[in-house]
Amino acid sequence: QVQLVESGGGLVQPGGSLRLSCAASGFSLKPYVIGWFRQAPGKEREGISCIVNSDGRKDYARSVKGRFTISRDDDNDTVYLQMNSLKPEDTAVYYCAADYSTIPHLLSRFYEIWGQGTQVTVSS
User: Fold this and answer.
1) What is the DSSP pairing of strand 92-99 with strand 113-114?
2) Residues of the chain above pLDDT 90, percent
């Protein structure tokens, strides 16, 4: 069964950090672009970062640039999203997704495989 599994979400205070992980089951992430998306209640899904696994090219949304860092671990075939300086407005369900491509982009409609999501809550 082909699936993505996110982990690492939780409750954190404003200014804190979390690291999300995205691991694949049943396939390898290597030929894919891996994107991170988030959706807050009542809001549209937002693409926040992506990485081309074959060459490491990255892209970030303006809302997270300078605070979030995407990276890959080839040995463990996992993609991470390090989130620093978290704000209450970062509260959302975070999803990772895979697109069989070599072009970095944050267009959710082109991502074919999605994880189940992990909740991130930023609150004091």
Assistant:
1) antiparallel
2) 95
CB 12 within 8 A of CB 86: yes
Question: In 3D, which of 24, 28, 32 has the Cα closest to residue 56?
Answer: 32
- Give per-residue pLDDT as tens, 23-58: 999 999 999 999 999 999 999 999 999 999 999 999
Ramachandran sector of residue 85 (left: φ over 0; alpha: ψ -120 to 50; beta: rest): left
The DSSP bridge pattern shows strands 3-7 and 58-60 to be: unpaired
- 118 contacts 20 by C-beta, under 8 angstroms: yes
- Which of 119, 95, 109, 100 is closest to 36 using CA atoms? 95
